[in-house]
Specification:
Layout (H helix, E strand, L loop, with lengths): L7 H11 L7 E5 L12 E2 L9 E2 L3 E4 L1 H4 L8 E8 L14 E5 L11 E4 L3 E4 L2 E4 L9 E2 L10 E3 L7 H9 L4 E5 L3 E7 L3 E2 L10 E2 L1 H12 L3 E8 L3 H14 L2 E5 L10 H5 L5 E6 L3 E2 L5 E5 L2 E6 L3 H20 L8 E6 L3 E2 L5 E10 L5 E5 L9 H5 L2 E5 L5 E2 L4 E6 L4 H7 L1
Parallel strand pairs: 5-6, 13-16, 13-17, 14-15, 17-21, 19-24, 22-25
Antiparallel strand pairs: 1-12, 2-11, 3-10, 4-6, 4-7, 5-9, 8-9, 18-20, 20-21, 22-28, 23-27, 24-25, 24-26, 26-28
The structure holds adenosine monophosphate and magnesium ion.
């Protein structure tokens, strides 16, 4: 195999030509597990919501016309004919000139069409003095005013946040049909990498990528499957990749794609199915060795081992695919404009991503200062960085004081920074 670097745009184009993200199916989940899932069908109200007209205040249920003309100084006297209990069908009927005591949330009794607030009344024995007039429907929430029976309450494709979960609860929905989360198998490689919990002997490091990438997969609505660490050995890698392809919809590997003697993944990938490797190296920095394959309809992203590079390439290439298969509205990374604090150089002929930290100047404008990527293996870079800027391959650098677009690594960062 020979590395032929393609540009980032070409790489995206090749991936799009060979693989179209499609939903992986639907499943029914209990409502208490539906949070943050994507609704896979329209939801109709099977009955009126609320199911009955109810009082929205504590007070007295009345026929509005009986109160007309009442005010603070000239109350109208109505005859108390009973009390409406919350949670029960009212037993009283409001005839002309009568009223019944009621509370917030109780059904409106037959004959009544409004409720006078307790604060506007004085009760004396069997007589209630009404000190304010009400109009028809006042202080009443009508049956079906939230949702009419048969009305579409939620639409297919909506993300189920706390609000939508609340609507489903109002409809009495116990299980809800959502899109299945795409399963993403994650394989780490390298003889130096060990599982968390094991002791670190000389020369070993903990497996950062499996955990960081699993979290990144969850952030996009995918379901990670951590397949552990695999040795850079042809048969073992072949077995691991086969297992990954049988279990998951997307496969991510990290490490083992550079040009060293142990970097065997691309070779193995080409033996597993068609079309095999479609991108073998991208003219970007970091992430040059990134390899992408499609094997019998499933994409395999082989990311570099350096954790920061792996996470950045995940954001650029894998994230949109997971979103698409999860049927989530593809959220682009948010951007803010910032002024660069220093000149930042691009790697020759490669699209360069510079991780930056954001501060504000006196005028309130964002200032972007580079967070050095560090040498191979740095992991704190992205946790210290707020975002990254992109320098096009045709450009040598961006100068100090230039205005640039910063892609934010955390969606709510903008708000927290604004408050500073
Ligand atoms: P490689 O791409 O395999 O040549 O690895 C590049 C660098 O990333 C090396 O310093 C590796 O030790 C490191 N690395 C590879 N995989 C992992 C991992 N899963 N967790 C942490 N560091 C890793
Ligand atoms: Mg390695």
């Amino acid at each position: 195999l020979f590395k032929k670097l393609v540009s980032l745009d070409e790489a995206k184009h090749i991936i799009a030509k060979n693989f179209t993200p499609k939903p992986v199916g639907k499943e029914s989940v209990p409502l208490d597990q539906a949070y943050n899932r994507i609704l896979a069908e329209d939801m109709m109200a099977p009955f009126d919501v609320p199911p009955f007209s109810r009082s929205t205040v504590d007070g007295y249920a009345v026929r509005a016309e009986d109160t007309f003309g009442a005010d603070e100084d000239r109350p109208i006297a109505l005859k108390l004919c009973g009390r409406v209990k919350i949670g029960e069908q009212p037993r009283v009927t409001i005839e002309e000139g009568t009223t019944a005591e009621t509370v917030t949330g109780a059904p409106l009794p037959e004959g009544a069409d409004a409720v006078v607030m307790l604060e506007d009344t004085v009760q004396k024995g069997d007589t209630v003095l009404i000190h304010a007039s009400v109009s028809t429907g006042e202080n009443v929430m009508k049956a079906g005013s939230d949702l009419k029976k048969g009305e579409t309450a939620l639409r297919k494709g909506q993300t189920l946040t706390s609000y939508e979960v609340g609507v489903l609860a109002a409809l009495g929905v116990t299980r809800v049909k959502v899109y299945k989360s795409p399963k993403v198998a994650i394989i780490s490689t390298g003889a130096e990498v060990v599982e968390l919990g094991e002791s670190l002997s000389k020369g070993k490091i903990y497996d950062i990528n499996a955990y960081a990438l699993s979290a990144a997969v969850k952030e996009c609505g995918g379901e990670p499957i951590n397949l552990g660490i695999v040795e850079d050995e042809h048969r073992k890698m072949e077995a691991a990749l086969k297992k990954a392809l049988s279990l998951a919809d997307i496969v991510i590997t990290s490490g083992g794609v550079s040009v060293g003697p142990t970097d065997i993944i691309p070779k193995v990938l080409n033996t597993l199915g068609k079309p095999g490797v479609i991108v073998y190296g991208i003219a970007i920095k970091p992430g040059k060795p990134t390899t992408v394959a499609v094997i019998n309809g499933k994409p395999v992203f082989s990311l570099p081992g350096n954790p920061t590079s792996a996470l950045l390439i995940f954001q650029l290439l894998v994230r949109p695919v997971v979103f698409g298969m999860a049927r989530r509205p593809v959220e682009k990374l948010r951007t803010v404009k910032a002024i660069t604090a220093t000149r930042m150089f691009a790697a020759r002929g490669r699209r360069t991503f510079v991780t930056v930290h954001l501060t504000r100047d006196k005028a309130g404008k964002f200032v972007a200062s580079p967070v050095p990527l560090g040498l191979s293996g740095a992991i704190t870079t992205l946790s210290k960085a707020d975002g990254f800027i992109e320098i096009h391959e045709s450009q040598q650098f961006v100068d100090a004081g230039e205005e640039v677009r910063v892609f934010l690594l955390r969606p709510n960062l903008y708000q927290t920074k604004v408050k500073e």
